[in-house]
UniProtKB/TrEMBL annotation:
Compartment(s) of residence: Cell inner membrane
GO annotations of cellular component type: plasma membrane
Region (Disordered): 203-222
Name this protein carries in UniProt: diguanylate cyclase
Taxonomic path: Bacteria, Pseudomonadati, Pseudomonadota, Gammaproteobacteria, Enterobacterales
Names of required cofactors: Mg(2+)
First-tier enzyme category under EC: transferase
Protein task: Catalyzes the synthesis of cyclic-di-GMP (c-di-GMP) via the condensation of 2 GTP molecules. Cyclic-di-GMP is a second messenger which controls cell surface-associated traits in bacteria. Involved in the regulation of cellulose production.
TM helices/strands, residue ranges: 350-372
One Pfam family hit: GGDEF
Reaction catalysis annotation: 2 GTP = 3',3'-c-di-GMP + 2 diphosphate
Record GO terms (molecular function): diguanylate cyclase activity; GTP binding; metal ion binding
Length: 554
C-alpha cells in the first residue's frame, strides 16, 4: 500500500497541466513585463524628444535675448545722448549737413571718419512721407546724439553666431548702419526708402506700439531662398517724441544652421521655427517638401494648445509632434518625428533586443535588474532633489527662510566669538503687488528671479542671502560694519533701478527696492533676529520716505 501511494500520488493528478499553467504564467508575465518595458521606453524616447526640443529652444532664446538686451542697451545709450551728449559734432560737419540737406541722397562723416557715417535723404522726401518729420528745433539735438552714438555703433561687434547688422533709422531722414556701403545719392535714397517702408518701421508708431516694446519682423515668403533676416526693433523716444527705430538683424540662414547643429546626430528629425501666424522662418529640412510642414488643421490645434501651455506634444498617426514656445520671440519651435525615424534609431534597437530576450525567456531577469537600477537611481535623485528644496527657494535659488535663519544665526554667533562686526540688510521690492496685478504672476516670478540675481552678483562669497517673504530678501554680511553694509545696500538699490526687465515680448519694466540696514556693533547686539527686526523697521522707514531708498539709521 505504501508503494502504491508513492507511485500514484493524489496530490498532483495532472502534472502536465501544472507545467503548462506555470509556463503560461511565465510566458504571460514575461510578455506583460516586456510590453510594459516597451511602453516605458517609448515614453522615455518621447520625453527625450521633448527635452531635446526644450534645450534647443532655451539655447535659441539665449541668442535672441542677447540681441534684445543689446537693443535695449543701445536705446538707453541713445536716450542718454539726447539728454546730455558727451561728444558734439564739429561745426564744419553741421554746416556740411545744412549745405547738402536738399540733395537726393547725402553722406556725412560727423566724427572725422571715426564713427559710422550718416546717410540721409532730402527735405522734399521727408515732407512726402507721413511717418517722417524733420523738426528744425530738434534736428541739431538728434544729429548730436547720432554723432555720439556712431562711435558706439562703429566699435560694437555683432555676435557671429546669429546676428548680422545693427542699424538706426531716423524719422528726420537719415540712418546709421556699420554695414552700409552706399555712396551714390540714388542708392542712399533707395536704401532709406526700403527702411522706412519696411513693416518694422511703421510698427513703432505711437498708435501701433503704444507700449514702446520690442517688435519682430521677417521675410514673408517661406520658400524664398534669397538672403532673409529676422529683425528685432525698438522705438527711440525722448520727451514724448518719436525720433526713430533701432533694429538688429538675425540671419535666417544662421538660425537654420543653428537648428541643424543642435540636432547633433539625430539629423533625421525635422525642426521648424514658426512665427505667431505659423509662417515658416527657418527649418532643418527644405520647406518645399510640403509633407514636412504642418497642415492648416494641425496649426489650428497647435494654436489652441499654445493658449494653455508654453510647451507640449501630441501624436498624429505615425508622426509625433512636440513644440515649445520661445520667451523672447513671438514664435514656436516644432519638432516632427516619424515612426520610421524612431525605429531606425536607439529606440528601435532596444525594442529588437527586448524581443530577442523575450524569445529566450530571460527578459524577466533583465527587466527586474533594469527596474531596480532605475528605482535606486530615481530614489537617489529624489533624495537629492528634496534635500535641495529643503534648503533653497526654487524660484530665486537663494536660501529659503528656514535655512537662511539657521545659517545667519550661526554666522552671527561666530562673529561675536571672533569679535568681528556683522551687518544685516533687509530688502523689499516696491509696488510688487501691482506687477502681479497688471502682468500676472509669471511676470512677478521673473521680477523676483531678476532681483535675486542682482543681489547675488553684488555680494561676496562669504555673505549669506535668503528670501524671507513674498518679495522680501535678507542679507547677512559677516565682517562688515553698518556703514559698509549701507554702501552695499546702495549698490543693490542702484542696480535694481538701473536695468529694465523684459517681462513679456512687448513690455519692459523698471523696478526699485527699499532697504533697511543694521549693524551688530552699532546696535550693541549680535542676536540675528534682533538685528533683522531693526533692519526691517528701517526698511519701512525707507518706504514711508518715498521708497527706492536705503535707511541705515532711525
Amino acid at each position: 500500500m505504501v508503494l502504491k501511494r508513492t507511485l500514484n500520488p493524489t496530490r498532483f493528478r495532472h502534472p502536465g497541466r501544472v507545467v503548462n499553467l506555470c509556463f503560461a504564467i511565465v510566458l504571460l508575465c514575461s510578455t506583460l513585463l516586456t510590453w510594459r518595458e516597451v511602453v516605458v521606453l517609448e515614453n522615455a524616447y518621447l520625453a527625450g524628444q521633448r527635452n531635446s526640443l526644450d534645450t534647443i529652444a532655451t539655447a535659441l532664446d539665449r541668442h535672441l535675448q542677447y540681441g534684445v538686451d543689446r537693443l535695449l542697451f543701445y536705446r538707453s545709450a541713445m536716450e542718454e545722448a539726447l539728454e546730455a551728449p558727451v561728444i558734439t559734432p564739429s561745426q564744419e560737419a553741421l554746416a556740411a549737413f545744412f549745405a547738402q540737406r536738399d540733395s537726393e541722397g547725402w553722406l556725412l562723416n560727423v566724427n572725422d571718419k571715426r564713427g559710422v557715417p550718416l546717410r540721409g535723404v532730402s527735405d522734399d522726401y521727408v515732407e512726402q512721407n507721413p511717418y517722417l518729420n524733420r523738426e528744425e528745433e530738434r534736428l541739431n539735438q538728434e544729429l548730436t546724439a547720432a554723432s555720439e552714438f556712431s562711435y558706439l555703433m562703429n566699435s560694437a561687434s555683432a555676435d557671429p553666431a546669429l546676428q548680422r547688422n545693427m542699424f538706426y533709422t531716423s524719422r528726420a531722414g537719415f540712418y546709421l548702419s556699420p554695414a552700409a556701403q552706399e555712396q551714390e545719392e540714388a542708392r542712399i535714397r533707395a536704401h532709406y526708402h526700403r527702411l522706412v517702408n519696411h513693416p518694422y518701421f511703421s510698427a513703432h508708431s505711437k498708435r501701433s506700439n503704444p507700449t514702446r516694446g520690442v517688435r519682430w519682423t521677417h521675410s514673408q515668403s517661406p520658400v524664398d531662398q534669397a538672403d532673409r533676416s529676422l529683425t528685432a526693433s525698438v522705438p527711440l523716444d525722448h520727451e514724448q517724441r518719436w525720433y526713430g527705430v533701432l533694429a538688429l538683424d538675425f540671419r535666417v540662414d544662421a538660425v537654420t544652421q543653428f537648428l541643424l547643429e543642435s540636432l547633433e546626430e539625430d539629423h533625421e528629425a525635422d525642426i521648424v521655427l514658426y512665427d505667431s501666424h505659423f509662417q515658416v522662418i527657418a527649418a532643418t529640412k527644405s520647406t518645399t517638401h510640403r509633407g514636412r510642414l504642418l497642415s492648416a488643421e494641425q496649426k489650428t490645434k497647435l494654436a489652441q494648445m499654445m493658449k494653455k501651455a508654453t510647451e507640449g506634444d501630441y501624436r498624429l498617426g505615425a508622426r509625433f509632434i512636440s513644440w515649445a514656445r520661445l520667451s523672447y520671440f513671438d514664435g514656436v519651435l516644432v519638432r516632427v518625428d516619424t515612426l520610421a525615424q524612431s525605429a531606425s534609431g536607439e529606440f528601435g534597437k532596444i525594442t529588437l533586443v527586448l524581443a530577442l530576450l523575450w524569445l529566450l525567456f530571460t527578459s524577466m531577469l533583465i527587466f527586474s535588474w533594469v527596474v531596480i537600477r532605475r528605482m535606486v537611481h530615481d530614489m537617489y535623485q529624489m533624495q537629492h532633489h528634496l534635500q535641495w528644496r529643503a534648503w533653497y527657494d526654487t524660484l530665486t535659488r537663494l536660501y529659503n527662510r528656514g535655512a537662511f535663519f539657521e545659517r545667519a544665526k550661526n554666522a552671527a554667533a561666530r562673529c561675536r566669538e571672533q569679535n568681528q562686526p556683522c551687518a544685516v540688510i533687509q530688502l523689499d521690492l516696491d509696488h510688487f503687488k501691482s506687477v502681479n496685478d497688471r502682468f500676472g504672476h509669471q511676470a512677478g516670478d521673473r521680477v523676483l528671479s531678476h532681483a535675486a540675481g542682482l543681489v547675488s552678483q553684488t555680494l561676496r562669497a562669504e555673505d549669506i542671502a535668503g528670501r524671507v517673504g513674498g518679495e522680501e530678501f535678507c542679507i547677512l554680511l559677516p565682517g562688515a560694519t553698518r556703514d559698509e553694509a549701507e554702501r552695499v545696500a546702495e549698490r543693490i538699490r542702484t542696480r535694481l533701478n538701473a536695468r529694465e526687465i523684459l517681462i513679456t515680448q512687448n513690455t519692459t519694466l523698471r523696478i526699485s527696492g527699499s532697504l533697511g540696514v543694521s549693524g551688530a556693533q552699532e546696535e550693541g547686539t549680535y542676536d540675528f533676529e534682533q538685528l533683522q527686526l531693526v533692519a526691517d523697521r528701517r526698511l519701512y522707514l525707507a518706504k514711508q520716505n518715498g521708497r527706492n531708498g536705503v535707511r541705515a539709521r532711525d
